[in-house]
């Protein structure tokens, strides 16, 4: 069976088969195996190392099936990145071929709201990287896809994630194209993808890794503060801090400013005894991401001393002033820290 007839068969039968047992289901097998194999000749015509990955679900049914075309130079998972993909729309009266973006990893890092904002920011950049998409028969419209491809909703239901689609083309199950038109559309979409890759490459991947790294250390700017731009500035700050670190200056800063956090006023030796003695971190009051690339001559006046927690929180806030950080800290905590003294030692 050719790629188009498989796509039509899926559209006509998926809503029913989804009510049946997933394991051993014949349609699920067709989606996973036969559908990707049916486009092998088209993929052979492309320059990029593209693989077709189709899914009806993992252990259980998806709300809707899909077939993604993934570039092995970037990823083999549809959870991140940008790629062409066949997606079914709500009601299964139509399906589409779109230049989409993976959302799962962004959602886990940023949350739904900020992830959607980031995907919306990227969509026009993807279009700009392949300016001839419209002349090749693709358009920008509200494609009702992704995890919201539920059989109980009509296609006109609002789908915010549709805004992350750069461009695409819709096919009606009741009035499909010819096989040659269908396969030619796929080839054109893959050619557009190659244009996009040549201009954008792994930029979005690199940005996501920055955000994931900051999230892992608790330093990703919080929602509503500075978004991706803020995350990139914090990352640049941390890189330059490591690269241009002056150990003697940092040591002098700590010796002169002391070992009490200027944010929460914690004395770590009062909390942890000998293990916390003279334990404090030096924080650049002016982020290094804002400093000239050729560097500047720093003095002790350019630093504050912060406990590890306050240091990461000030990064999460986008590196505001020390006064701003102090306003965020619960004053009751500062008052408590003033009452405890470093008067005991670890045995």
From TrEMBL:
It comes from the Bacteria. InterPro entries: HNH, HNH_nuc, McrB_DNA-bd. Residues 10-197 form the Type IV methyl-directed restriction enzyme EcoKMcrB subunit DNA-binding domain. Residues 261-316 form the HNH domain. CDD domains: HNHc (cd00085). Pfam families: HNH, MrcB_N. This is DUF3578 domain-containing protein. It comes from Massilia agri.
């Amino acid at each position: 069976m050719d790629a188009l007839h498989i796509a039509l068969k899926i559209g006509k039968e998926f809503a029913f088969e989804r009510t049946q047992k997933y394991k051993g289901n014949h349609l699920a097998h067709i989606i996973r195996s036969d559908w990707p194999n049916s486009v092998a000749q088209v993929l052979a015509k492309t320059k990029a190392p593209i693989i077709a990955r189709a899914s009806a679900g993992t252990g259980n049914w998806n709300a809707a099936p899909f077939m993604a075309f993934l570039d092995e130079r970037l990823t083999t998972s549809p959870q991140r990145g940008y790629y062409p993909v066949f997606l079914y729309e709500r009601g299964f009266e139509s399906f589409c071929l779109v230049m989409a973006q993976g959302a799962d990893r962004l959602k886990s890092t940023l949350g739904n709201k900020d992830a959607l904002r980031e995907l919306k920011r990227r969509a026009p950049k993807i279009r700009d990287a392949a300016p001839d998409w419209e002349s090749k028969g693709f358009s920008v419209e509200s494609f009702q896809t992704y995890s919201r491809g539920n059989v109980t909703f009509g296609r006109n239901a609002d789908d915010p994630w549709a805004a992350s689609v750069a461009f695409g083309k819709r096919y009606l199950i009741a009035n499909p194209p010819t096989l040659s038109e269908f396969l030619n559309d796929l080839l054109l979409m893959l050619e557009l993808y190659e244009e996009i890759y040549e201009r954008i490459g792994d930029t979005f991947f690199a940005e996501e890794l920055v955000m994931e790294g900051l999230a892992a250390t608790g330093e990703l700017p919080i929602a509503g503060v500075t978004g991706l731009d803020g995350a990139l500035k914090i990352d640049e700050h941390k890189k330059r801090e490591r690269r241009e670190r002056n150990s003697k200056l940092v040591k002098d800063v700590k010796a002169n400013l002391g070992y009490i956090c200027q944010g929460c006023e914690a004395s770590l030796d009062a909390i942890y005894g000998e293990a916390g003695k003279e334990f404090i971190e030096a924080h650049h009051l002016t982020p290094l991401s804002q400093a000239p690339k050729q560097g500047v001559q720093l003095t002790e006046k350019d630093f504050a001393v912060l406990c590890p927690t306050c240091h990461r929180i000030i990064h999460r806030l986008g590196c505001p002033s020390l006064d701003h950080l102090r306003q965020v800290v619960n004053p009751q905590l500062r008052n408590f820290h003033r009452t405890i003294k470093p008067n005991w030692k670890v045995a």
